[in-house]
Amino acid sequence: MENNKKFAELAAKGLLQSEELYRYVLETSVNPREPEPLKELRDITAGHPMAGMGTAPDAGQLMTMLLKLVDAKKTIEVGVFTGYSLLLTALTIPEDGKIIAIDLNRDSYEIGLPVIKRAGVEHKIDFREAEALPVLDQLLKDNENEGSFDYAFVDADKVNYWNYHEMLMKLLKVGGVVVYDNTLWGGSVAMPEEQTPEILKSGRRATLEFNKLLAGDARVQISHVPLGDGITVCRRIY
Ligand code: SAH
Ligand code: CA
């Protein structure tokens, strides 16, 4: 619990822009436009000891934009927690859109579920309580799924990001988009190893490795955006 609070503080310090500038963006452009159900979900989550894990609303706003731009209908989410990014996806895709949402832990999903139900978008969600890798592997066994997804959001265990990426490169259609969260890992990617707080070290190593691999991956166009804790947007080229 304490660790998580510390992490949130470090993440805030790691922002590339100043705290004042970040607050300005939130107050001017993000908060006034945040849909009511998302605000409510954020409020409910605020009481959770791991609240810092929820998607930052400014990153969420960009994700909503991307979902609309690719006209996303068939989507995947890896790492649901209480459902902020899941609800924003469900609110954005059309009535007949689908989200395969994977998380190890159903209990946290259930915290946000009443808000999702009241928003009338639960029918778009296929929640799977499981390790994400085997679920993605299973999806790939069905030929119909190959190259069929418009959009994916990955926000789970950082050590597996590259494994998720390899599978998503098969599941996404050409032109499809995958967004990876926390790719600045509390700003630690730019800290020397010896100055990195212990709590960030293992995630820092995984993130550095992942960012390097992604930068060298010709299959995708990328944009590494310093919103929230850093997100990387990838568009499958071939
Ligand atoms: N996107 C969420 C935050 C996700 S936090 C939001 O907007 O609020 C990370 C989540 O990843 C946690 O709920 C954790 O249970 C899940 N997770 C971690 N490792 C996982 C794995 N191997 N497979 C599936 N889910 C995993
Ligand atoms: Ca996250």
UniProtKB/TrEMBL annotation:
Pfam (any one): Methyltransf_3
PROSITE patterns listed in its UniProt record: SAM_OMT_I (PS51682)
One GO BP annotation of this record: methylation
Molecular function in Gene Ontology: O-methyltransferase activity; S-adenosylmethionine-dependent methyltransferase activity
Keyword field contains ATP-binding: no
InterPro entries: Cation-dep_OMT, SAM-dependent_MTases_sf, SAM_O-MeTrfase
Signal peptide per UniProt: none
Domain of life of the organism encoding this protein: Eukaryota
Cofactor(s) in the UniProt record: a divalent metal cation
Keywords: Methyltransferase, S-adenosyl-L-methionine, Transferase
Family recorded in the similarity comment: Belongs to the class I-like SAM-binding methyltransferase superfamily. Cation-dependent O-methyltransferase family.
Protein name: Caffeoyl-CoA O-methyltransferase
Native source species: Dipteronia dyeriana
Organism ancestry: Eukaryota, Viridiplantae, Streptophyta, Embryophyta, Tracheophyta
